[in-house]
Amino acid sequence: MITKESEKKFKAGFVAVLGRPNTGKSTLMNALVGEKVSIISPIPQTTRHQIRGILNLEGAQIVFVDTPGMHSFKDHLAEHLNVISKRSIEGSDIIVYVVDVSRRIGKEESRLMDIISTQNIPVIMVLNKIDLKSVYLNSYIEAWQKKADEKVGKKPSAQFIPVSAKTGKNIDELRAALLENLPQSGPFYDTDTLTDFPIQFRIADIVREKLFLALDRELPHSVAVEVSAIKDRKKVVHIEVTIYVQRNSQKKIVIGKQGRGLKAIGTLARSEIEKIYDKKVYLEIWVKVLSDWQHRPRILKELGYWWV
């Protein structure tokens, strides 16, 4: 229980987790929170919403805002993902800027550095994937310092922490740096809350993750998942899910030979959803063709991709 006296010493704040696609942002946030609140996939663009993961510590609460990676390509969905990423900075107290040190710096990185370096809040550059060949680690630090030197007036500073979100290396050091930069404030959520991400979007994201993992790179950007009904009964939860694809050929890929693909996706997703509800889940999944859904704002909104 937090008393008025202890609240005066309490620290709490919002941490925006930003980075290019597939830099390990979701894996990092899950490692920091200690629970899975954001989907993980080797396919870029798997996070399409702001997902708040909440880490409750003695005397502190850190609210992580996981965001889509910044994208350079043009379509309604990509534009929306970029808007969400920029909005996540607003109202945040700290920026965790995640880079993949096994990957060469590109144009997207320079654009993202331009955005982040103009902010007047602490920045921690997380040099992720040091478990792989970290040949570009110094290149990212040098690029940031060069960007800072180009600024007129106050030079944007950053703290650099090499980590492996996958293995957990230096995660404790990162947590300590976050705590050091948090402002004094009372908690924003109950201390037993893990995330404020709506349950229907969490379920949709779980199904989408299993879909991407099963299909590998066959349909990375051509599917959407909508949870159309949740009936939470005493002993079982009935959930209806629709997977939207753009073409009949994609529908066949998702369903698989004799329905084996869809059955495998459903089995994996159901197992994870049952952990959320702590009871049996009956998951019914349909696959429908919805042509060109990525370019239709009305459809995107119905699927929940305009939720913030």
Second rung of CATH, namely the architecture of the largest domain? 3-Layer(aba) Sandwich
Please identify which CATH superfamily of the largest domain we are dealing with: P-loop containing nucleotide triphosphate hydrolases
Which structural class is indicated by helix and strand composition?
Answer: alpha/beta
SSE series: HEHEEHEHEHEHHEEHHEH
* Widest β-sheet, arrangement of strands: 2-3-1-4-5-6
Shape: globular
Main traits of this protein?
9 strands, alpha/beta, 308 residues, Rossmann fold, 37% helix, 22% strand, GMP Synthetase, Chain A, domain 3
Structure description:
A hairpin with a 2-residue loop joins β2 and β3 (60-66). α7 (199-215) packs antiparallel against α9. The strands form two sheets. Strands 2-3-1-4-5-6 form a six-stranded mixed β-sheet, sandwiched between helices. A three-stranded mixed β-sheet has the order 7-8-9. With 308 residues, the protein is an alpha/beta fold. The longest helix has 18 residues, at 260-277. It contains ten helices and nine strands. The protein has two domains: 4-181, P-loop containing nucleotide triphosphate hydrolases (Rossmann fold), CATH 3.40.50; 199-302, GMP Synthetase, Chain A, domain 3 (2-Layer Sandwich). 37% of the residues lie in helices and 22% in strands. It has helices spanning 4-9, 25-33, 76-89, 107-116, 137-150, 171-181, 199-215, 248-255, 260-277, 297-302, and strands at 11-19, 51-57, 60-66, 94-100, 123-128, 159-162, 224-232, 236-245, 280-289.
